[in-house]
Prior knowledge:
It comes from Halomonas urmiana. This protein is mostly helical.
Amino acid sequence: MRGDASGGGETTPRSEAIRLLARREYSRQELAERLAAKGHDAEAIAECLASLVEQGLQSDERFAEGFLRSRILRGQGPLKIRLDLERRGLDREVIRHAFDEAARRGEGDWFALACEALARRFPGPGDTPRERARRERFLAGRGFDFDQVRHALDAAWSTDA
C-alpha cells in the first residue's frame, strides 16, 4: 500500500485493520482471520484488536446491527442471518441484542418479509404441489422458519398481506 505510515513496504496489524475498516464493518473474528492471513503475529493481532475495540473503531455489536439490516433489505430470513452471524464469530448475546434492536426499530417483521420475498420471486402460489414445494424451498433457503413459510404461502398474493 502506498503512503503507508511506516514508510516501508510492511504494514502493521493496526494499519491493515484500519484500511479494512475504512471500507466496511468487520467482526472481530473476521479481522483477526484477515490479519493472520497477511502474516501478522497472533499476539500483535490480539493487542491491535483490543485497542481498536477500546477506541470504538471496531464493534461486534455495530457490525451485527449493520449486517442484520443489510440482510433484511436483501429479503433473508432470521435463521439464515443468525447462522451467518455465528459463522462470523459473534456470540449469541450480541446476535440476540441485534435482533432485539431491529424489532424495536420496527425492522424484522419476518412474516411480512417472507410474503414480500415470495411475491417478488413468484407470480402466484402455484397450481400444483410441485410448484408449491418449490416456493417452500425458496423461502426455507432464504432462512425463514416453518410458520413464516406457511404464512407467506397463504398471504403473499392477497391484497391485505
